[in-house]
Amino acid sequence: MIDCSRCRSGRHVLRLFAAIAQLSVTGVAAAFDPLGAMPGGPATPAARAPGAAGALGDCPTRPPTAPLPIAEAVSRSLCQNPETREAWAAVKLRAAAVGAYESGYLPNLLGAWQDQREYSSTKIQGLPEQNTSNRAWIFAGNLALGWLLYDFGHREATIDQARQLYIAEQASLDENLQETFLQSATDYYAAQAGYAAFDSASQVEATAQQSRDAAKSRVGSGVASISDQLQAETALAQAKLNQSKAHAEYQIELGVLALDMGLEPDAALTLPATSETAAHPEELEQSAHRLIEQAKHSRPIVAEAEAELAAARSNERMARSQDYPSISLNGKTTWSDQPTIPGLGINPVPAADRDSYIGIQVRVPLFDGFARRYQIEQAKAQTEYQQSALIVAQRRVAREVWSSYQSLHEYNENLSDSKALLDSAEQAFEAARQRYTGGAGNMLELLSAQAALANARFQRIQALAHWYTAQLQLAASLGELGFGSIVSERP
Are 361 and 327 in contact (CB under 8 A)? Predict the structure, then answer.
């Protein structure tokens, strides 16, 4: 395989001169990337998330907003998550590695300078006339040049491998962002649902209080037995117990959300009320097969596997190229003014020494104990491994899209059912309450309607929470989860 090494080397030399010229104008404080190997990346992990621009993509430093928007909660989580920051740093590390390998197309120039004070003396016993001494300042230096001109594609394969690993690392960061985004958004909705459950439990407690007061009034008037009041008081005690439990669960969910954002679990957070509006997702209008095929092209985990496969193939090319010769241009010049001694008994006299050479060096690999052959077999095995890893990633994506698609279908249908159940339970309870206070109903009927209403409220809260989470889960399985997926969902 023949690569245009000299052509690429020329382009890199021009880039180097352009960078030096730019530095002379902007100063050394500017980012130094003469080979263009490190494209400008996001300033923060959150800024790389889809839809981050204009949606709190930067890392917030102020105290949390009250009430806390979901976009801000997610942004804080992306910035503070240690795994996300680790993946973000790994991307920059891979980018720098590309630049290091790109430098292989440029010549290497090494200079050395020596400036020293020298004193030497020689004393010969019995022959004092042969004694010598010398004091001198010695200046010496050398300049060495090395430039790999042609290597049968080894450098090209090395750079291609580094670039593919850089792309894979970017995809890994994107997948990490999707997972962190989904987790923080899910915890946000869980905290909202926890507050809604606590608010619902408080309403149930207030309703149970009213039922107890009504029963107590009827018992005092002699139109109801004491058992009505005892049953109502039992229901009130149970409602208070459920309220305390709901409040504790809400505080737990709130603490988890605070930890996601890098705050202490007891941080003061206020969340907006859960929205009752839920639109029909556009994804449900498409077939699951179409979404699966779409995810195989947009999901970061698939892009990562594809890039790692391409890197393995480049590594195989690189291993094979080591069997071929390499041609380099080498040169060196040295100079020194170290004094020389003409002969025994003669003091050193000033001198100037110069030595230079330039030439072409051809290196031919002859035998290395079969190491290169094993390296080629290792590279081939790595390629086969990455081919299987790509298939595994594609199947994983298909499974996740299918599961998320069916779950969203289920929860989308549950929305209307839970709303109908809540409306019916509210009407039934109001009818039972009026019947009891009017003397036509009994306490068991009232308590049954009261329990049904509490259950319907809980089912409605769960249905909304599950629907929002399922919608985000489907977006994450498609690789499209971003700030645009959540900003429009909240009033």
Answer: yes
235 with 213: CB under 8 angstroms?
no
Domains in the chain (CATH in brackets) are 35-104+178-323+369-489 (1.20.1600.10), 107-150+325-364 (no CATH)
Q: What is the pLDDT of residues 320-353, one digit of tens each?
A: 998 999 999 999 999 887 777 666 556 666 777 8
Helix (H/G/I), strand (E/B), else coil: 323: coil
In this structure, what are the phi and psi dihedrals at residue 116, rounded to the nearest 5 degrees?
-145, 155
In the three-class reduction of DSSP (H, G, I as helix; E, B as strand; rest coil), residue 145 is classed as strand
Residues 57/79, Cβ–Cβ less than 8 Å: no
Q: State how far the Cα of 186 lies from the Cα of 179, in Å rounded to an integer.
A: 10
Intra-chain end-to-end CA distance of the chain, in Å: 61
Enumerate residues 6+ apart whose C-beta is below 8 A from 433.
210, 211, 214, 446, 449
Provide the 10 A C-beta neighbour count for residue 17. Answer: 11
335, β-bridge pairs: 141, 354
- pLDDT band, very low/low/confident/very high, at 9 (cuts 50, 70, 90): low
pTM score of the predicted model: 0.78
How is residue 71 written in tokens? 């976009």
Sheet holding 353-363, edge to edge: 108-122, 132-150, 326-336, 353-363
Among 239, 275, 236, 268, which residue's Cα sits nearest to residue 254? 268
Q: Is-contact 479 292, C-beta < 8 A?
A: no
User: What is the rounded CA–CA span in Å between residue 465 and residue 468?
Assistant: 5
The amino acid present at 443, given as its one-letter code, is: M
Cα–Cα distance measured from residue 45 to residue 460, given in angstroms and rounded to the nearest whole number: 36
Biggest alpha carbon distance in the chain?
Answer: 143
